[in-house]
Amino acid sequence: MPHPDAPPLPENEAQRLQALRRYDILDTPPEQAFDDLSMLARLVCDTPTALINLIDDERQWTKSAVGAEVSELPRSLSLCAHAILQPDVLMEVPDALADPRFAHNPMVTREGGLRFYAGVPLVTAEGHALGSLCVIDVRPRRLDDAQREALRALGRQVVTQLELRRLARWFQTQSTVDELTQVWNRRAFDQRLADEWARHGRRTEPLGLLMIDVDHFKRYNDELGHPAGDRVLSEVASVVGDALRGTDHLSRYGGEEFVAILPTTGVNGAMPVAQRVRQAVERHAWQPRGVTVSVGLASLVPAKDVPAQQLLERADHALLLAKRRGRNRVEAFAGWQPL
Ligand SMILES: Nc1nc2c(ncn2[C@@H]2O[C@H](COP(=O)(O)OP(=O)(O)OP(=O)(O)O)[C@@H](O)[C@H]2O)c(=O)[nH]1
């Protein structure tokens, strides 16, 4: 049973919630850009408090709060949940105690509760009101026309920030994820390897690396076609990803070769992971024919003046051995050997 005073739901609630999810912003830390806009709203409207609230399924979640410490509230108590019902209208409540919608709301009736509210809905280009930029006061009052105009303008800026934030995240993903296999790309790998190499060097801990290469992939491509080859690569990535641990970092190194970074893992710890990867690929239900991988494994405690390239070269050497020794097998680097 909904709360008797609970705000009604917007007509397009399911799509509105989907739109909100696409911004990937709920439960994220405060960000200066949003706090700046709240601060300006508070200044312009001359209120003690300004908030940027987003209306989730069952709660109001606060992205930015200036002059108050709130993070979330049940939706049934949210004034912004009322504001979003009319996306084109700045909702102004001069005295909440005198408004039948809010007169019994504990946010209003409690000691020092709010009496004045003005909220401008945050409306996306598709027309979804995600939440509101609002100012509140503990005494009844009204905004003047200039303040209303300024609050609307700031509300539009909040939406612009939301869009910019989403675009920035999209570009970030595009530049670090391999399109075909949806694992990290070479650029992300290079960066991560450099970071982990430095971090493990500081802690004098071993960093493990697996080079994973699809066996006889040229034959597969030649006989079954490039699109079938593409599907295999994307499935190998998914099977290998599932066989790795949550802390491991899988990238497509290039072509039919993948590389996994195994933090704080020596050869003894990396071997069972590598075997699990190899077996998972071998046992996968491939159609129309089986697929296997060879794995080269190396681990090093990074030392001063030793480049991370050393680890790669060792894993690559072990991979070549695995190929020479019959494929569908794992070899660990144990010194340079004639090939
Ligand atoms: N379908 C597809 N094929 C690719 C892609 N990238 C590289 N390849 C193919 O992968 C094949 C790699 O062949 P090779 O390096 O000779 O290795 P292999 O046939 O797997 O043989 P071994 O590694 O020795 O077992 C080549 O035919 C490339 O054209 C891709 O994105 N999609």
How far apart, in Å, are the first and last alpha carbons?
Answer: 73 Å
**What is the alpha-carbon Rg in Å?**
28 Å
Question: Structural class of the helices, strands and pairings?
Answer: alpha+beta
Supply the number of structural domains.
Answer: 2
Based on the coordinates given, report the CATH architecture of the largest domain: 2-Layer Sandwich
Largest sheet: 6 strands, antiparallel
Instruction: Give the strand order, joined by hyphens, for the main sheet.
Output: 3-2-1-6-5-4
**Residues in helices, as a percent range:** 40-55%
Q: Provide the CATH top-level class of the largest domain.
A: Alpha Beta
What is the count of DSSP helices, taking H or I runs of 4+ residues? 10
In N-to-C order, the SSE pattern is HHEEEHEHEEHHEHHEEHEHE
Principal-axes shape call: elongated
Which hetero compounds are present in the coordinates? guanosine-5'-triphosphate
Mean pLDDT: 95
Low-confidence segments: none
Give a count of the beta strands, DSSP E runs of length 2 or more: 11
Strand content: 15-25%
Q: What is CATH's topology name of the largest domain?
A: Beta-Lactamase
Catalytic activity: 2 GTP = 3',3'-c-di-GMP + 2 diphosphate
EC number: 2.7.7.65
Organism: Hydrogenophaga atypica
Domain GGDEF: 205-335
